[in-house]
Amino acid sequence: MKTWFGLWLLCLTPLLAADTHIQLILDASGSMWNKFEDGRYRITTAKDVLQQVVNSLPAENAGLQVGLRIYGSRVSHKENGACDDTALFVPMSGVDRDQLLKTIRKARALGATPIAKSLTAAAADFSGIQGKKSIILVTDGLESCGGDVEAAVAKLKEAGVDVDLRIIGLDLDDQAVAVFSRYATLENVADAASLSKVLSAAVEEQVTLERKQLPVTVRLTRKGKAVTDAKVMLVDPVKATQDTFSLSQGRYQLSTPPGSFDIAVDDVHSGPKVFSGIAVNADQKNEFSFELAPESDASLRVSVKEAVAGSAVTVFYEGAPTGGEPWITIVTPEQSDGAYRDWKYAPDGKGQVTIYLPGEVGPMEARLVATQPMGGEIVLARAEVTATKPEISLDVAANLPGGNYFEAFWTGPDNPGDFITIVPAGSAPGAYESYQYTKKGSPSQLLAKPEAGDYEVRYVSGENKVLASTRVVIQGATADLEAPQSAMAGGKVTVSWQGPNGPGDYISVAEAGSNDTAYSGYAYTKDGKALAIDLPVKPGAYELRYMVGSGDKLLARRPLTLTPAKITLDAPDKVKTGAPIEIKWQGPDGASDYITIVKVGAAAASYGDYRYTRDGSPATLTAPNEAGTYEIRYNNERAGAVLAKKAITVE
C-alpha cells in the first residue's frame, strides 16, 4: 500500500504578460485519512488550504486559466483500476471559481497515488497551449503505483511545461525527502498553518493573491423572520482563529481577507450551528442568509446503543428536509459539522440507512446533515452510539520459512474491507504487503518474504486501522543447485534443486556477471525437482541461478561453462527438384532446433521445408521445385541463429 501523496499541481504565474494556465491536482488517496500531530485529518486540511488559495485568486484577470485534476477519488486503493484513477474535473478555461470550490468540497479520499500517470496526463492537458505554465507540488509521500515520475517530468518538458518544481511536503520521511530533493526545492511542513503559509508564499511568487479586507454580511431568519439575538463567529479552519460579527440594522457584519471559512451560530432556540465551506472572495457580494430550524424539526435514532468499531448499524431518521440533499454520517463528536466518514443520503423526509461505524473505539455521533441554499453545511439532528473494541485473535507460527506461503488463523469482526497482512516490524499503520481480505475466511494465506527478519502479522480494518498484531520471525530462504560444470551451447542442462519452491520461483541460466534478473533460459521449480533448461547458443561463462518469483531475489548460483556446439550435417551434394533429401545430423538438439533447406544467402530466420531435431536423425526434407544453389541449415529457432550449414545443389 502506498504511503499518501497529498498532491496539488498549481500552475500559477505573475503579472501575466501572456495567458497563464493553472492546473490544480488534488491527491484524494486513502492515506489522506492519516492525521497531523495536531489531530487534523490531512484530507480536511488539504481541502481547507486549497479552498483558501482558490478564493484568494485575483477576481479579474482575463489571461488566467485555472483547471482542477483529482486522482484517487473514485476507486479504492485495493481495487483494480486504482492506479488509473486520475481525471481533469475542471478544464483550464478561465477561472470558474464556483466549480473549483464545489469540486474540491465534494472530493472523497479513497484510492491510490498515481503521480506519474497524473503528471503524464497533465502534459497532455498542456499540449498545444501557449503562455506561462509553472508547477507547484504538495505531497506527503511517494508514488504508490510503480510509475516513473522522472519520465513523467520529462514528458512535461516535452510538452513545454516549466518543470522547475517547488515541492511542499507534509511530514515527509527521509526517503521521500531524498527522492524529491533530486527534482526540486523542497520544504516540509507538519500542520495546517505551516502548509497555508508555505503554499501561499509559493503561489505569491507566481500571481498576486487578493489580500484586501472584504465586507461580509450574514442575515439569520427563523420561519422568515430575522434573528437578532444570536452570537455569530467567522471561523478560519486553517489558522484555527475566529472573529465575532457585530450586529447592525438586523444583520451581522465584519471584514476579512478572502478565503474559505465556517460561520458558527450560537442560537438559544436551535442550539450551536456551524455552516461550513463559506467562500469569501472579491468577485461576489459575500452576503449570506441562513434559516435557523428548531432542533425538534429533525430526529435520529441508532438501532443499538453500542456496536463493534467498523461494523454496520441502522440509523432511523425523521424530519429530513426536502432540499439541501440531506445525508447521514457517523463521526467522533469533536469533529466539525462538515466532517464525514461512511455516509448515505437521507431521502423522502423519513426512513432508515445502514452506516458503518468508524474503525476507532469510543463515543460516536450519528448526524443528519444538509447543505444550505447559500452554501455551507448544517447538522440538523444528532444521536449517540458507542464503538466498542472488537475481540480479535491472531494465531501464527512464531518462526516462518521465507519465500513461501503460510497460514494465519484469526478471529475478528470481519467487517467490509478488513484484511490480514504481514509487514516488517515497526511499519507505519497504513503499510501492507502480502494480504488477504477476511471475507475469504480463516486461515488467511500470506506470503513470507525471502529475507530474514522480524515481521508483524496484522489484522487491519477497512479504514486501515491496525486492530491487532503479532510478531513473527522469518527465517531467511536458502537454496542449492546441482548440475554439470559444463554443457554444450544450444542444448539442455538438467538441474536438481533445493529451495522454498514459492510462487513463481524459477531456475534460470544467464551470462556470468549479468544482472541478477537477467536470463537466457529458465524453468519453474513447480515443474519438478529435476528441470531441463534450454541453453543459449553462445559459448562462454554462465551461471545457473535459483530466483524467488515474488521480487526476483537471487538465492543461489552455480557456474556453468558452455562449450561450442558440435554439429555435423551429412547429406548429398546434389539432389533433384522435389526429391526427398535424407540428412543425418548430430548436434545439441535444443528444444527449438530444426533442420531446413533455403537458398544461399537467405536471412538467418528464413526456412523452407523443415523438421525439428526432436523428431530424430535422419531428418527427411523435400527439395525445392526450383533449381539452384541451396543450403541445408541447422537452426536454433529461439535465438534466430544458424548454427551449422552445408551447401547442396538442386538440379
Automatic annotation (TrEMBL):
Pfam families: VWA (PF00092). InterPro entries: VWF_A (IPR002035), vWFA_dom_sf (IPR036465). Keywords: Signal. Residues 1-17 form the signal peptide. The keyword Oxidoreductase does not apply. PROSITE patterns: VWFA. Residues 21-220 form the VWFA domain. This is VWA domain-containing protein. SUPFAM superfamilies: vWA-like.
